[in-house]
Amino acid sequence: MAVIEKIRLGLTLLGFIILAYTYIAAGFIISALMLCSCVIWPINKTIYRIINVHLGWCYWSFYTFLGSWWSNSECYVYTDMADFKHFGKENCICIQNHRYEIDWLMTSIVAENFQMLGNHKVYSKNSHKYVPLVGWTWYFSESIFLKRNWQEDKSILKTGLKNLTEYPDNYPVYMYPEGTRFTEEKYQSSLEVSRSRGYPDMKHHLLPRPKGFTAFVRDMKGKFAAVYDSEIVFEKHPKPSISTIAQRIPVIAHLSFKRYKLEDIPCKTDEECAEWLRNLYLDKDKTFDEFINNEKLKGTPYKIPKSSRGLLNVFFWCFLTCYPLFNYLCNVIVAGTSTQRIIVSVAFLFVVVILRWIISVTEIQDGGQTTPKSTQNGKQD
């Protein structure tokens, strides 16, 4: 049995290396095509956006493949039918909790199921747009990158939201108002700030930052239909992480969705909108706590099916990128020079470094103080 297990692990490692190479090679090709498409922007923005929706889907479906097909993970959605009938048929902003390394991966699987993966947008911090492949595709897809300095972010949001109103198709915008991923250290800091302002305690979330959300609600009323409260929880074992997924160990995610009409959200004053957001997070906290105590969410679960389109897309890119690679490697092994072998080794190390950099963006690390505080330099609270 030990020998069989070693063989299985060896095949898994080999398969993941091939998948990682395909992902990076395809990502560079897709990013290059997105860059070339920029010449169309001044002529016809609609055509530019249609092209990049399809290119973005080609890239992001690697992640849905990783979750659904590679690891055989499962994703269940809980909502009522009145809300469910709107999924994929309207522009919406999704308010996400941000507790896990792979919460975004499961959200991508849901978006793919409703044909909204290629044209999704995110609110993200400015440094993410420089991350190879991931950040580049977000940038070309017109996601909004914030510097966490309100004086600068006001103009960034104004321009970004204006561009979103011109978009031709229905799409989701993913927002993480907590501003950072949950860790115990950040939670204690957040709790301190929350109590100093007289807000109720939460057990499983950080105090949300309201300014970006308030700006969105004010500018997008009449242009966006709804706000979706998306709360994701994972079963305790195994650990929901990129490492777990890479080892082909399945995880099970449960997502609760609630729909709120954008026109019903109060925004006459900043505080009124901020209070609505804080109350939403209190409800999210109760939903999370309910799962912790009962190991289930309210309602009937809908299991997200695997995407056959995503599977075919990965096979296509695997053939396109691996066939010439294997031919070249065979030639180098059989009749290659020392220089060629060194180039191959350096290229392999380059792939490893790029992959490690991309993975590091998703990993949970104990961080310093990143919870909202008032400052004198215009920093967001």
Automatic annotation (TrEMBL):
GO terms for cellular component: endomembrane system. One of its GO terms (molecular function) is 1-acylglycerol-3-phosphate O-acyltransferase activity. Residues 92-214 form the Phospholipid/glycerol acyltransferase domain. InterPro entries: Acyltransf_C (IPR032098), Plipid/glycerol_acylTrfase (IPR002123). SUPFAM superfamilies: Glycerol-3-phosphate (1)-acyltransferase (SSF69593). The keyword Oxidoreductase does not apply. The chain crosses the membrane at residues 12-41, 311-336, 342-359. The keyword Transmembrane applies. Keywords: Acyltransferase, Membrane, Transferase, Transmembrane, Transmembrane helix. Pfam families: Acyltransf_C, Acyltransferase. Belongs to the 1-acyl-sn-glycerol-3-phosphate acyltransferase family. This is Phospholipid/glycerol acyltransferase domain-containing protein.
